[in-house]
Amino acid sequence: MKEFLEFVLKRLVDYPDELVITQGEDGEFIFFKISTHPNDIGRVVGKSGSTISAIRSLLEAVVANSGRKVAVEILEPKAP
């Protein structure tokens, strides 16, 4: 799943080399934390959150039969 998420996001952003995706698990949850260049946050989120919402829906569909849940968090970029 992480590879799928990375595949999709690298095609959306202008700075793919700065994209970092961390995956973890906690009980029934699989979570992803996304960090990217500050200029790419808007591309990942999309207008009114539509892009990140679609990505979350795709990931939820992948794990639907396993009884697990997916959480995706976009981390705020650090100020220089």
Explain how this protein is built.
The protein has a single domain (2-74), classed as 2-Layer Sandwich (GMP Synthetase, Chain A, domain 3). The chain has helices at residues 2-12, 41-45, 50-63; strands at 20-26, 29-35, 69-74. The chain has three helices and three strands, in the order αββααβ. It has a three-stranded mixed beta sheet with strand order 1-2-3, with helices on one face. Strand 1 (20-26) and strand 2 form a beta hairpin. The longest helix is centred in the C-terminal third of the chain and has 14 residues, at 50-63. The chain is α+β, with helices and mostly antiparallel strands and 80 residues long. The radius of gyration is 13 Å and the shape is globular. The mean pLDDT is 91. 38% of the residues lie in helices and 25% in strands.
CATH superfamily: K homology (KH) domain
Number of helices: 3
Largest sheet: 3 strands, mixed
Please give the number of β-strands. 3
Inertia-based shape: globular
> Rg, please?
13 Å
Outline:
The chain is α+β, with helices and mostly antiparallel strands. The protein has helices at 2-12, 41-45, 50-63, and strands spanning 20-26, 29-35, 69-74.
Strand and helix map with partners:
Layout: H1 2-12, E1 20-26, E2 29-35, H2 41-45, H3 50-63, E3 69-74
Parallel strand pairs: 2-3
Antiparallel strand pairs: 1-2
Q: What brief labels describe this structure?
A:
3 helices, GMP Synthetase, Chain A, domain 3, alpha+beta
